[in-house]
Amino acid sequence: MNEHVDPTEIKTPTDIREESEDIGRNDTPNPTMGDIINRRYSRRGFLGGSLAVAAIGATVSPMALLAGKAQAATASAFDFTETIAGVDETHHIAEGYDADILLRWGDKVLPDAPDFDPMNQSADAQAKQFGYNNDYVGFIPLDGSEDRGLLVVNHEYTNGELMFPGLARVVDGKVEMGDYTRELVDIEMAAHGGTIIEIRKGENGKWQPVLDSPHNRRITVNTEMALSGPVAGHDRVKTNADPSGTKVFGTLNNCAGGVTPWGTYLMAEENFHGYFGGELPAGHREEENYKRVGAPGGWYNWASFHDRFDVSKEPNEPNRFGWIVEVDVLDPNSTPRKRTALGRFKHEGCETVVNGDGRVVCYTGDDERFDYVYKFVTAGTFDEADRTANMNLLDEGTLYVARFDEDGTMEWLPLVHGEGPLTAENGFESQADVLIETRRAADLLGATKMDRPEDVQPNAATGKVYCMLTNNTRRKADDVNVANPRPENAFGHIIEITETDGDFASTKSTWEILLKCGDPSIAEVGATFSPATSENGWFGMPDNCAIDADGRLWVSTDGNSQSKTGRTDGLWAVDTEGEARGTSKLFFRVPVGAEMCGPYFTPSGETLFLAVQHPGDEGLATFESPATRWPDFDEKLPVRPSLLVVTKQGGGKIA
Question: Can you tell me the distance from the alpha carbon of 178 to that of 156, in angstroms, rounded to the nearest whole number?
Fold first, then answer.
């Protein structure tokens, strides 16, 4: 193995991630969402409700109608003074609220962790400290108290150019990386994964980590895990290090996630393909499988130092990633389990809801252009009185993929071996094959090709499900239509699914566009925010979302930037009901170069957790501010990924 890699001019990991998600590896003839929207709405004639707003938005800015429809603002479910959109080196929050930094990259998680020293990092230290690029955030109350609980946080990926002083420099506007060694790679590996840490609210109402809690734990790329469900033990997941096909070391690129009704932590493995290098042997069984997911992606040079990330040496290793990982947070010695029944693809989140019949339904998107929306329905039912009885619910059930039809209905298609085209004649010898190649199975079923499905969030109170579609810059000009009038859809949209009779396990549902995103003051963009939305309230690139204690929708974004929109990412409150439907208000905005992740509310809605990911990323090359450059690192938010806790001044529910 190489111990040293020559300096190479590269793009940042964030750039590479975005380009990979933009590629779109689905070359099937399945209809795109643009095709479906075009046929549906042209046939319906744009009658009434949100369709009327959509038709207006395609030709006239909704902002121009603000004066005539001001009454919509009074019907909003949100009562806060909106903050102002913009770009600078710090965060901003609505008046009357506090946003306190709770944890930052490098802060202690375990009591024996050393103090963070950016100039003297090590893998051993990082494995005991808060990881990099915090994404998903969840909160699990302890002992029935909201004032004490376990915070669970995903650490999606690393930006070496921001992590390691002196490793990178800017040359002609591009980031040029210096020497990469095994030591630096091992630090990156330890900075991935997740954090479980107890937090408590003090007498002053402020939250603090509890460093001596027995629950605290770091999960990294080197944490031992088990494969469970239909794929466990299959030949396609066996390696030299694990001939049993049941034991995997680590998880990576954990983007969004979830918390189950029985209080376990779900980590979604998203862009796993980027960590692998090398070339498969000619004619290898996995050649087409890996092509469909883009492996090996070669974003990182881990394969230069660790054989398991080199597909020429361990050709089955990529099949052991791309799953949903379940962690029992109450037992710090437990083995996390990769629940293979939920399928293998680039999971963005895994949000759960208990159905009326007791079964648990999990929603997840496959975050790439032209890929799909999924849900999983457990075979067994949730037992509220017996946590132990629920611990393997996610190993048995049915995985479905969505087909959206032009009449406003949709069908959830079962991915079950032996049904329809999922047979040996098409290369599926068992359910394990269907799950390992979930994308190809969904292709054959005729699922609808979507515009980068990210968070898919059910609302237990209403039977609605909200699907964040971040963007699709690969949309062709012949997809343009009145309801989706944007070639190279840069701003994305939000789909609202209504599960039939509130049955989340239903296989037939209906759908509607809640919002087409972007600047509504520019008619060509075709955004459909309510006319009551202010110039600060519109957003693009919806990513993560949350339903609060009152059933209201909050949306965070990924992709707004100084260069693209003249504003940063942030968190917006979005009305989904009544006259104010489609109205959006800016609650929080991040520093330059950062992405807004989370969000997550405590059960009462009085605390909101937010994650500020890769701050200073865009700024490294383009934003002239001392706060984005060393040696000012330690005291500056913009170059240190941080987790924030938001509370209302004087107490009470958020907004």
Answer: 23
Taking the chain (655 residues) in runs of 10, the rounded mean pLDDT of each run is: 36 66 72 61 38 32 38 75 92 96 96 93 98 97 94 96 81 78 97 98 94 98 98 98 97 97 98 97 95 96 97 98 98 98 97 98 95 97 98 98 91 98 98 98 95 96 96 76 58 95 97 94 91 97 97 96 88 97 97 93 97 78 39 46 95 94
DSSP state of 606: S
Distance of CA 640 to the CA centre of its chain: 20
Q: Is the dihedral of CA 247, 249, 255, 259 positive or negative?
A: positive
| Cα–Cα nearest to 101, from 239, 212, 209 | 209
The secondary structure of residue 372, as a DSSP letter, is: -
**Per-residue model confidence (pLDDT) at position 157:** 96
For residue 595, list its beta bridge partners. Answer: 613
Instruction: For strands 337-339 and 224-228, give the pairing.
Output: parallel
Predicted TM-score (pTM) of this structure: 0.90
Look up residue 596 and give its two tokens: 């807004």
What are the DSSP calls for 373-441, one per residue?
Answer: EEEEEEEEE--TT-GGGGTTGGGSEEEEEEEE-TTSEEEEEE--TTSTT-SGGGT--SHHHHHHTHHHH
Omega into 631 within 30° of 0, i.e. cis? yes
Q: What is the pLDDT of residue 339?
A: 98
Token readout for 9 is 């001019």
**How many other CB atoms are there within 10 angstroms of residue 71's CB atom?**
10
Q: To 5 degrees, how large is the angle CA 320–CA 323–CA 324? A: 140
Looking at residue 654, its pLDDT comes to 96
Amino acid present at 68:
G
Question: What pLDDT shows up at residue 499?
Answer: 98
3-state SS string for 377-396: EEEEECCCCCHHHHCCHHHC
Q: Which helix (H) or strand (E) holds 126?
A: helix 123-126
Token pair for 540: 């693009």
- pLDDT for the residue 19: 67
Query: Tokens 């509310």 — which residue?
Result: 601
Q: Are strands 584-589 and 92-93 parallel, antiparallel or unpaired?
A: antiparallel
At residue 27, the pLDDT reads 77
Q: What 3-state DSSP class applies to 152? A: strand
Tell me, what's the pLDDT at 15? 67
CB 308 within 8 A of CB 314: yes
Instruction: For residues 472 and 445, give the distance between their C-alpha atoms in angstroms, rounded to a whole number.
Output: 22
Contacts of residue 257, defined as CB under 8 A and 6 or more positions apart, other chains included, come to 135, 136, 138, 152, 154, 265, 266, 267, 268, 349, 350
Distance from the Cα of residue 540 to its chain's centroid? 16
**How far is it, in rounded angstroms, from Cα 279 to Cα 480?**
39
Phi, psi of 345 (to 5 degrees): -165, -165
What DSSP string runs through 1-68?
Answer: --SEE--EE---HHHHHHHHHHH----S-PPBHHHHHHHHHHHHTS-SHHHHHHHHHHHS-GGGGTGG
Look at residue 561 in the predicted model and tell me its pLDDT: 84
Which helix (H) or strand (E) is 556 found in, with range? strand 553-557
Secondary-structure percent of the chain, ordered helix, strand, coil, rounded to 5: 20, 30, 45
Model pLDDT, residue 75: 87
First to last CA, the chain: 55
Nearest to 521 by CA among 62, 17, 22, 36: 62
- Token pair recorded at residue 334: 């437990």
Give the containing element (helix H, strand E) for 267.
Answer: strand 265-269
3-state SS, 59-75, equals HCCHHHHCHHHCHHHHC
* Residue 286 near residue 317 (C-beta atoms within 8 A): no
Q: Name the burial class of residue 11, with classes exposed (0-12), middle (13-18) and buried (19+) by CB atoms within 10 angstroms of its CB.
A: middle
